[in-house]
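Standup notes
- HV: blocked on the assembly model, inputs below
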Amino acid sequence: MREGWRVLRQALVLGVLGVLVAAIIHHPLLKRLARGEFRDTLVQAAEYPGLRLITTAEGEDLWRGGEAVFVDARRSPAYDQGHVPAARSAPVAEAEKTLPQALVDLRRGQLVVVYCEGGDCQSSLLLAKRLHDEGFQDIRVMTGGFDEWTKAGLPVEKGHGQE
Amino acid sequence: MVRNKAVLIAFRLVLGALFVYAGAVKAAAPLGFAQNIRNYQMVGPSLSLAVAIVLPWLEILAGAFLILGVWKRGAALVISSLLAFFIALTIVTMIRGLDIECGCFGAVDRKAGLSVILEDLAMLYLGLCVLIKKEGTGSTHYAPSDIARNA
């Protein structure tokens, strides 16, 4: 019985330690969460059936396949410094009310891969939701973003590209 | 349940490594994991992110403790409890007919389904073996202190 309590106490201490470590490491994210920043960034799968999250490796496959159109949701200066080759620039700020100019020629059935910086960036998901609302049916969000793309040693294009 | 000490150590190392890995890939992309949690439609967006921030570190710590052999039964209790919860959650998700990604091991294209349940059950078995076995009595050979205690 005493051994059982000891094990339970260890588990509880581990739980508290987990919370503490997470709070220390992710405190900038927690601050933003406390400000209510992420309320609109998480989507309900049922509400957005055509939207899927993908890994960088899956993104690479789609990029090499050449069938997907890559869309960079970051601000223009970041796009100019480097982006996925052939990606179109569509900063999410420009997509608040209308479809960004760079995407108006796309048919709604076109497979689109959206990305932003990576880590805890939100713009790719926000833009993906916007595209969904505009009628796009096959949208993938590359969650690792441009950071993981470059870390994986994948090709990068600089300048205005297909903006 | 397995009683052989060497096998139990192997279980502990394998399970610990799996949890450290699973936690690390989730901790690297908290928003993506939060979206996975949100897809289960059990909690709201804020709580999804809070869980996505804390849960990976709990997995990493419990896995690391298990590997190091520190508080191994406490770590095994944490991991077994998490696995039991994941199994229940996946069953409920299947009953509700939700076609969603499981969010396990950072995989974003793996559905919450039977294969996930079987995988979690296998890991739960390892966890329970470590949890149930009392420290210091795992060997098939008795240590002198055990003999003295039982005398």
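- HV (later): unblocked. The mean pLDDT of chain A is 86. The first helix of chain A runs from residue 2 to 25.
- Next: hand off to the docking folks.
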